């Protein structure tokens, strides 16, 4: 079995972090760690201006995406009902907010639920544009992507055929330009909507974090806001398979069908390019403390950042010592530490030992009484933490 299948997390086998194995470790194979790499120029830029730039870039793109989808939905809701709507919305006299909301919810919840179901099986992609983006960032091999693409197209054709056979009336789920939208507008609408969805997947599923297991919720919500702004004008495809399947079932391809391939493909490239950009400039260091991986730990300053949570607020160990020591001990090796960092670690270890000695003196009598106590691992150390049934230590 492909080694990639052994990785953990949302979309398993695609986004887990691999570790190299050498013959000295008893293995001859290696796993490729998903890491676009840091640009060499980044290491020469002082951390303060670099972090300011990262924050500015994130705020610009985030504000643009937020207001773009908010404005798009508002534009649809305020459009007078005098123009011809899109066939997929079944709104011949213009947009109907209730119908738009219903269609958007159908797509959003369907994606969220099925992604949650199938992420352990195939990764839960369901979209050739998403597959393309994951291949571009190195999360999915191109060979695997080709097979997944074929399966997605077959699934889209099968689903459209079954719906046409089961439900009475003509199949009215095709995607066409509506609301007076021209081809260029439709192309860029599809591009930006797809970029939003794909970038959400990259940040919530590809990037490992504490909320990765909830990624399907965020992905479904991303599709929801995209559909609100796009259903009336383009049918809100964002997915070549979603547009191709109904056309095959109806044996009819509109002249603008190509935009439902080119638009999502451009959106996937746009999202993948921006993802590589923020990875290259180490976006994690601009707003540290969100997930606290190794990169954030290296940039952690115990004198200015004491925001890390404590496992038990009633723990005997001093909070600041626990937080800082846990941050510094996240590195498995001290070889890459700077002299200043080594001195800080030594100082924290000394404070920790002093805290341990003090706590043993203060709680020695209570420990002999046999009350249950739990363990708290801090770095490579183990200390005892009072349980809920313990009384406060007598100082």
UniProtKB/TrEMBL annotation:
<keyword id="KW-1133">Transmembrane helix</keyword>
<feature type="transmembrane region" description="Helical">
    <location>
        <begin position="53"/>
        <end position="72"/>
    </location>
</feature>
<feature type="compositionally biased region" description="Polar residues">
    <location>
        <begin position="374"/>
        <end position="387"/>
    </location>
</feature>
<feature type="transmembrane region" description="Helical">
    <location>
        <begin position="258"/>
        <end position="278"/>
    </location>
</feature>
<feature type="region of interest" description="Disordered">
    <location>
        <begin position="329"/>
        <end position="395"/>
    </location>
</feature>
<feature type="transmembrane region" description="Helical">
    <location>
        <begin position="183"/>
        <end position="206"/>
    </location>
</feature>
<dbReference type="Pfam" id="PF00230">
    <property type="entry name" value="MIP"/>
</dbReference>
<keyword id="KW-0812">Transmembrane</keyword>
<feature type="transmembrane region" description="Helical">
    <location>
        <begin position="131"/>
        <end position="163"/>
    </location>
</feature>
<dbReference type="InterPro" id="IPR000425">
    <property type="entry name" value="MIP"/>
</dbReference>
<keyword id="KW-0472">Membrane</keyword>
<dbReference type="GO" id="GO:0015250">
    <property type="term" value="F:water channel activity"/>
</dbReference>
<feature type="transmembrane region" description="Helical">
    <location>
        <begin position="99"/>
        <end position="119"/>
    </location>
</feature>
<keyword id="KW-0677">Repeat</keyword>
<feature type="region of interest" description="Disordered">
    <location>
        <begin position="1"/>
        <end position="36"/>
    </location>
</feature>
<protein>
    <submittedName>
        <fullName>Aquaporin-1</fullName>
    </submittedName>
</protein>
<feature type="transmembrane region" description="Helical">
    <location>
        <begin position="213"/>
        <end position="233"/>
    </location>
</feature>
<dbReference type="InterPro" id="IPR023271">
    <property type="entry name" value="Aquaporin-like"/>
</dbReference>
<feature type="compositionally biased region" description="Basic and acidic residues">
    <location>
        <begin position="329"/>
        <end position="372"/>
    </location>
</feature>
<keyword id="KW-0325">Glycoprotein</keyword>
<comment type="similarity">
    <text>Belongs to the MIP/aquaporin (TC 1.A.8) family.</text>
</comment>
<keyword id="KW-0813">Transport</keyword>
<dbReference type="GO" id="GO:0005886">
    <property type="term" value="C:plasma membrane"/>
</dbReference>
<dbReference type="InterPro" id="IPR034294">
    <property type="entry name" value="Aquaporin_transptr"/>
</dbReference>
């Amino acid at each position: 079995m492909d080694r990639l299948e052994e990785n953990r997390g949302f979309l398993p086998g695609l986004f887990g972090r691999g570790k190299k194995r050498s013959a000295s470790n008893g293995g001859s194979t290696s796993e490729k760690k998903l890491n676009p790499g840091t640009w060499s120029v980044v290491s020469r830029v002082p951390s303060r201006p670099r972090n300011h730039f990262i924050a500015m870039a994130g705020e610009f793109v985030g504000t643009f995406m937020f207001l773009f989808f908010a404005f798009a939905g508002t534009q649809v809701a305020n459009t007078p009902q005098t123009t011809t709507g899109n066939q997929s919305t079944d709104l011949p006299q213009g947009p109907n907010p209730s119908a738009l909301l219903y269609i958007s919810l159908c797509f959003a919840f369907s994606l969220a639920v099925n992604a949650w179901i199938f992420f352990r099986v195939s990764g839960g992609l369901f979209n050739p544009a998403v597959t393309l983006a994951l291949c571009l960032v190195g999360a999915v091999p191109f060979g695997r992507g080709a097979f997944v693409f074929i399966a997605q197209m077959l699934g889209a054709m099968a689903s459209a055929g079954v719906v046409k056979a089961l439900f009475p009336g003509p199949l009215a789920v095709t995607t066409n330009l509506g609301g007076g939208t021209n081809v260029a507008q439709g192309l860029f609408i599809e591009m930006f909507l797809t970029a939003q969805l794909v970038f959400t997947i990259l940040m919530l599923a590809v990037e490992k974090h504490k909320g990765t297991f909830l990624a399907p919720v965020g992905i479904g919500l991303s599709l929801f806001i995209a559909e609100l702004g796009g259903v009336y004008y383009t049918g809100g495809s964002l997915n070549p398979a979603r547009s191709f399947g109904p056309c095959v079932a109806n044996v009819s391809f509109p002249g603008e069908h190509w935009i439902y391939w080119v638009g999502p493909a451009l959106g996937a490239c746009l999202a993948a390019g921006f993802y590589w950009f923020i990875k290259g400039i180490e976006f994690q260091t601009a707003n540290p403390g969100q997930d606290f991986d190794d990169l954030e730990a290296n940039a952690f300053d115990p004198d200015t950042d004491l925001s890390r949570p404590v496992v038990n607020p009633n723990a005997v160990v001093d909070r600041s010592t626990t937080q800082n020591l846990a941050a510094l001990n996240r590195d498995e090796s001290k070889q890459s530490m700077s002299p200043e960092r080594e001195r800080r670690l030594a100082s924290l270890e000394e404070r920790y030992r002093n805290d341990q000695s003090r706590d043993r003196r203060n709680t020695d009598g209570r420990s002999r009484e046999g009350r249950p106590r739990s363990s708290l691992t801090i770095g490579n150390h183990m200390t005892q933490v009072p349980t809920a049934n313990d009384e406060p230590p007598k100082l």
